[in-house]
């Protein structure tokens, strides 16, 4: 079961003391045109959710900016934020991450799970031997790689392919894997 991408913020998967946590949906590159649009690389499987009026959060301080519009462009999206009307205004947002609040992400259909929900799951082999906890997901061109960390801090890298990831039980927060020769 492949996980759907809306990745956890680079600072972690959650926040202490009930503070909101944020999920990455894009990365702002450079201004485009003369009306305040900016090119955004997508980091979500749901670009259709980038609709006018949606509040996005930009940068490390999570500055709230209402989205005025978004349209597909090359390998990304051209976004226009309310109040950002010139290339110079848009340039102030350059090279920053764009987030949504984790609490605002809609539920997925039965049998699907968001990528951020995998973090902290216990990983076991086919004999139910605990291998560790999923601590990181590395996105590569071919497939994701799950980083599993055991109690001693040792890391195990697992390709997120059907031959290795046998089952993800979201209710039990458990990932069952088959270790390939050499892992």
Q: So what's the overall shape?
A: elongated
Secondary-structure-based class equals mainly beta
Q: How much β-strand is present in the residues?
A: 35-45%
Tell how many strands the DSSP assignment holds.
Answer: 13
Please give the order of strands in the largest beta sheet: 2-3-6-5-4-7
* Name of the top-level CATH class of the largest domain: Mainly Beta
What is CATH's topology name of the largest domain? Answer: Elongation Factor Tu (Ef-tu), domain 3
Corresponding CATH superfamily of the largest domain = RimM
Order of helices and strands: EEEEEEHEEEEEEE
Descriptive overview:
Helices cover 3% and strands 43% of the residues. With 183 residues, the chain is an all-beta fold. The longest helix has 5 residues. A six-stranded antiparallel barrel has the order 2-3-6-5-4-7. About 4% of the residues have low confidence. It folds into two domains: 98 residues, Elongation Factor Tu (Ef-tu), domain 3; 58 residues, PRC-barrel domain (SH3 type barrels), CATH 2.30.30.240. A hairpin with a 5-residue loop joins strand 10 and strand 11. The radius of gyration is 19 Å and the shape is elongated.
Short description:
The strands form 2 sheets. Strands 2-3-6-5-4-7 form a 6-stranded antiparallel barrel. Strands 11-10-9-8-13-12 form a 6-stranded mixed beta sheet, with no helix packed on it. By secondary structure, the protein is an all-beta fold. It has one helix spanning 87-91, and strands at 7-8, 22-32, 37-42, 55-58, 63-73, 76-81, 97-101, 122-124, 130-139, 144-149, 155-159, 165-169, 174-177.
């Amino acid at each position: 079961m492949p996980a759907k991408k809306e990745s956890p913020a680079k600072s972690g998967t959650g926040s202490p003391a009930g503070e909101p946590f944020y999920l990455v949906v894009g990365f702002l590159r450079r201004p485009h045109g003369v009306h305040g649009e900016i090119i955004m690389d997508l980091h979500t499987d749901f670009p259709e959710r980038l609709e006018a009026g949606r509040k996005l959060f930009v940068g490390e301080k999570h500055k709230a900016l209402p989205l005025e519009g978004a349209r597909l462009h090359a390998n990304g999206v051209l976004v226009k934020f309310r109040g950002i009307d010139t290339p110079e205004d848009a340039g102030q947002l350059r090279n920053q991450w764009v987030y949504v609040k984790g609490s605002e992400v809609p539920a997925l259909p039965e049998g699907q799970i968001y990528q951020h929900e995998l973090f902290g799951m216990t990983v076991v082999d086919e004999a139910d031997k605990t291998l560790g906890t999923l601590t990181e997901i590395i996105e590569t061109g071919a497939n994701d790689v799950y980083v599993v960390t055991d109690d001693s801090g040792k890391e195990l890298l697992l390709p997120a392919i059907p031959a290795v990831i046998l089952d993800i039980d979201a209710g039990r927060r458990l990932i069952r894997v088959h270790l390939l020769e050499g892992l």
